[in-house]
Every structure is written in C-alpha cells, then in structure tokens.
C-alpha cells in the first residue's frame, strides 16, 4: 500500500506530506481546486509522463517521495533481479528539473523502466482514459485473460513464444522462395564469381603485400648489385679499404698496450670491430654475387599481382574482403542449390507449427469460454448491486482465424434494459454505466490479483441518487481488502472514507494548493458542503445521517 507521499514544488503545491491509511482514502474539494494534483503526483513518481511545466513557478526543481509498504513478493523479486534489496517499507523518489528526471529507490539511482515494472505490481490507477480503454474491444481479450491468468497464464506465454516462432518460419519461407526465383543467368553468374575467386587460390590475405616487396627488389636488382658490391669493395678489397686501415690501427694499439695496459679494452673493441666488418664484408659479397636479373620470377610476380588486383577491384579492396565475399557467395549458392529441399522442410515445419498452435489455441479457447461465463455472471451480479437490476452482461467468445491471441474474438456485451438485446458495451453504455461496469470488474479482479492499491479518479461520473449509495457500498467493501484512493464529488461516496483529504486553492500574491487531512468535525463540514453546496443546518444534518 501507499503509506505517504511528500510533494515539494510540484505544480501549485509548495511543500506537503500526505499520510494515507490502509482502507478508503477520499479526496474532495471545490471544483478547480486541484483534486487531481495528488493523483497526478502519485502517477508521476511511479513513472508517469510529465514535463518541466510541473515544476512550481519560481523553483528550480520538483521532488516527489512516495513511501511504500508492501509484502508483495513479485515486487521484491523484480527489485532483487536488479540488485536492489529493500525492506517491506521503502521510498521511491522522482526529482524533476527543466532538463532531467531522476528516479531513486531508497536513494539508489534507477531507470524509469524499473519504476514502471514496480508500479504495475503495486497499484492500479483508474481514470477517464481507462474508462475509454474498457470500451475498446481490442482490450477485452486482455481483461478476460487477466482474470484467467492463474490457469491460462503459462499456456498463453507458451502460445505467444510458439506463435512468434511460427511467424519466423513463414518469413523464412518467403525468403527461400525469393531466392529460388533467381533466373538461370543470375545463378550462372553467381557460380562464375565463386569459380573465379576459387581459381585464384588465395590462401594468404597478405600475399599481395609480400609479392610487392619482392617485386621492388627484382625491379632494382642492378642497382642493388652495384651498391652492395661497392660497399663490399670499400670494406675489404683494396689496400685503402676500411679493413686494411683498421688492421694498421689495431697493430699500433697493440704496441701501445705493451706500454699502457689501460688501452686493453680499446684493443679488444678494435678486434671485435674487425670481426664484425669481416662478417659484413662476407654478407655484402654474397648478396652482390647472388643478385641477378631473374626475369622469369619478375614476370611471375607481375602476373600474380595482376590477378590479385583484379580480384580486389571486383570483390573488395583487400584480399581479406575478397575471401569474405567468397564465403558469402558460396553460402548463397549453397542455399540456392538446397532451396527446394529447404522449402519443403520449412513448409512441413510451418504445417506442424500451425497444427500445434491450433491445438494450444483450442485449449486456451475452452478455458476462456469457461472463465467468460464465470466472469460474466459475477459482473452481472455486481451490476445488480450497483443499481442495474435488469442488466445482462455477457462476454462473447467467438472463433476467428489463428492470430497472436489464439482463435478467439472477445467482446463485452451488455443490455441495461429488459427489452433490449445484448449489444457491444461501447455502443450502448452511458458514462455512469461504464463506471459501474469498470467498478464491478475492479472489485472482482481485486480478489484474484496481488495489487495493493486501487486509485479511482472521479469514478462517480454519470451516477447519482440511489446508484451513488450502491457504488459507495461497493467501494467500501472493496476497501476491506485493498487500499483505495478516490477523488469524488459526491457526499455519499465521501462519507465512506476511513481518511478524508480536502483540497483548497488559495490565491493571494501567488496561487497555492493546500491539502488538509480532516478531523471528524472538519469532515462533517466538508460533507455538508458537498451535499448542499454550502454549510447549512440542513446540510449538516444530512452529513450526520451519512456518517
């Protein structure tokens, strides 16, 4: 249940905390006083849509804090999945600034989707918009399934998964048939492309780089031979060579070592240098002698690079892309070759899936029809209590072609006059009748679901007199096992409150909405005002009879 809500700088409210009780919480006030602001605050702290306009003029942010007290295990499981541990009492906060909107649970930053998940398990807000939802036929099957969830929930979940797989198979079949529709010329061209890449025998994605390096060497063979030969000659093949000069230097240093041993390291370094130059000389000699104009190899490389460049131009900018294209084309060709077999296999899978779906849909349909009878009877009984004694209510379940919901077309049918046949709810029900049908469904569903709190925003639309008393009694009964928060204009409904809130707007220098929790005496005055438009002895006496 909702334990309390703290509202700061929200619309016309400066700073206010409202403490709810576990039974029936009623909100009243003058027309235009802002009774729906409190419902709006609850809706918005739980993920409802709002913008920066809700920030009170002159403030930089609005803050809403909702304290929740629940034993709903589904709520705890959802939070635990998101690594949030809470006690039975926890706080949900929403901070709204001109540019951002942040949610927290017990101070931990969370996203809006998680808040909405929690909201769906904590409370049900009924507004005029939802009355419109009740009228729309497309929602009737969802309402029936919600009532039958205990028995049909797993069946419906499995059916939904199987139906998506079935649609996937049908999409696959369309794609396969489109592939099989390729012309013979297109298939031949595909095969030509595969053979061309395959025939080139590309195994190394770096082959072109390696060949280009080798080509550069072969194309400059003469120059390389000349340069390395000249270097070899300068190092060792002349009386004026580097090695000859180094030999003389080493000889002189060896003599010097005999005179000063501290030169021994230098002598050792000269010996090492001599050996290194001998090795370099040999390497340069071998390189220069072996460097020949290999015209045949040069031609081979050029021809191979021509083939590889052609492949890259046609199938990708690199050999890696060429090989990727080859894999893609080969897979496509393989699918075409096997398309007939694959089409037959997929068609059989579709038939089997369709058979299984129809079997499941038939089972679901039977359960829906049984629950439709039970729910219809319960709604009808409740509507009689809500001053529709001649009302007939029936949930029609008619067979249609297989679809995402099974094979059922569900529609709520009603007749409020004994002489009138059953007709769709949307076509015959007045605003007051819709409110009573909705209340009947809420009352019945509340006995089966785990929702802690039901909020009614002006459920008394279109009803008066004896009907108001019946609706008041039904809501009072509902509040015995669910927390109710209700905005009402009628004294009869307000008289059933366990806690009464009064909304009053004041306009001095600024406009402010104040929310008061009424004492017994104040409550009597509020009921008298609701009943008579003003507080008189007559309206006070009537209020006393209501209480």
Largest sheet: 6 strands, antiparallel
Q: Are there runs of 5+ residues with pLDDT below 50, and where?
A: none
The name of the CATH topology of the domain at 1-127 and 458-547 is Rossmann fold
Rg, Cα atoms, Å: 44 Å
Provide the residue-averaged pLDDT.
86
- In quaternary terms, these chains amount to single chain
The shape is elongated
Got a strand count? 15
Q: What is the CATH top level name of the domain at 1-127 and 458-547? A: Alpha Beta
Helix/strand/pairing class, anyone? alpha/beta
Specify the helix fraction band. 55-70%
CATH superfamily name of the domain at 1-127 and 458-547?
P-loop containing nucleotide triphosphate hydrolases
> What is the correct CATH architecture of the domain at 1-127 and 458-547?
3-Layer(aba) Sandwich
Q: Approximately how much beta-strand content do the residues carry? A: 15-25%
Cα-to-Cα separation, first versus last residue: 25 Å
Number of helices: 20
């Amino acid at each position: 249940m909702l334990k309390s809500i703290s509202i700061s700088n929200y619309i016309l409210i400066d700073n206010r905390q409202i403490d709810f009780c576990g039974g029936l919480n009623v909100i009243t006030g003058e027309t235009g006083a802002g009774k729906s602001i409190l419902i709006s605050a609850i809706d918005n702290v739980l993920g409802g849509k709002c913008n920066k306009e809700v920030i009170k003029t002159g403030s930089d942010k609005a803050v809403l804090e909702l304290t929740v007290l629940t034993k709903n295990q589904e709520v705890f499981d959802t939070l635990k999945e998101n690594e949030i541990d809470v006690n039975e009492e926890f706080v949900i906060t929403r901070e709204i600034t001109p540019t951002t909107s942040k949610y927290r649970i017990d101070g931990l930053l969370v996203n809006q989707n998680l808040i909405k998940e929690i909201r769906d398990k904590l409370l049900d807000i009924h507004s005029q918009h939802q009355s419109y939802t009740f009228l729309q036929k497309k929602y009737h099957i969802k309402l029936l399934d919600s009532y039958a969830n205990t028995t049909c929930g797993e069946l419906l979940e499995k059916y939904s998964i199987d139906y998506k797989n079935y649609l996937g198979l049908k999409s696959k079949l369309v794609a396969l048939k489109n592939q099989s529709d390729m012309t013979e010329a297109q298939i031949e061209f595909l095969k030509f492309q595969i053979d061309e890449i395959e025939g080139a025998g590309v195994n190394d994605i770096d082959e072109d780089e390696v060949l280009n390096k080798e080509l550069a060497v072969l194309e400059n063979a003469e120059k390389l031979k000349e340069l390395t030969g000249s270097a070899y000659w300068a190092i060792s093949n002349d009386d004026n060579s580097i090695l000859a000069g180094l030999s003389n230097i080493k000889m002189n240093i060896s003599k010097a070592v005999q005179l000063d041993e501290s030169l021994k390291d230098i002598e050792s370094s000269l010996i090492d240098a001599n050996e290194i130059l001998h090795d370099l000389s040999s390497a340069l000699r071998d390189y220069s002698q072996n460097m020949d104009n290999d015209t045949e190899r040069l031609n081979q490389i050029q021809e191979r690079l021509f083939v590889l460049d052609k492949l890259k131009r046609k199938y990708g900018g690199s050999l890696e892309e060429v090989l990727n294209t080859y894999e893609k084309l080969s897979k496509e060709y393989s699918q075409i070759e096997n398309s007939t077999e694959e089409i037959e296999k997929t068609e059989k899978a579709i038939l089997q899936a369709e058979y299984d779906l129809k079997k499941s849909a038939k089972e679901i349909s039977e359960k829906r029809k049984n629950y439709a009878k039970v729910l219809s009877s319960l709604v009808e009984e409740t509507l009689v209590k809500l001053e529709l004694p001649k009302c007939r209510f029936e949930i029609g379940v008619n067979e249609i072609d297989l679809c995402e919901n099974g094979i059922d077309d569900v529609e709520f049918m009603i007749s409020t006059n004994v002489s009138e046949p059953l007709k769709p709810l949307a076509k015959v029900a007045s605003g007051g009748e819709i409110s009573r049908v909705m209340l009947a469904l809420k009352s019945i569903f509340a006995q089966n679901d785990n929702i802690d709190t039901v909020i009614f925003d002006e459920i008394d639309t279109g009803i008066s007199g004896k009907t108001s008393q019946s609706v008041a009694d039904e809501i009072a009964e509902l509040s015995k096992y669910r927390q109710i928060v209700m905005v009402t204009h009628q004294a009869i409904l307000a008289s059933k409150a366990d806690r009464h809130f009064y909304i009053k707007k004041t306009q001095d220098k600024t406009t402010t909405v104040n929310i008061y929790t009424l004492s017994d005496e104040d409550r009597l005055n509020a009921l008298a005002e609701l009943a008579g438009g003003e507080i008189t002895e007559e309206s006070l006496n009537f209020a006393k009879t209501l209480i």
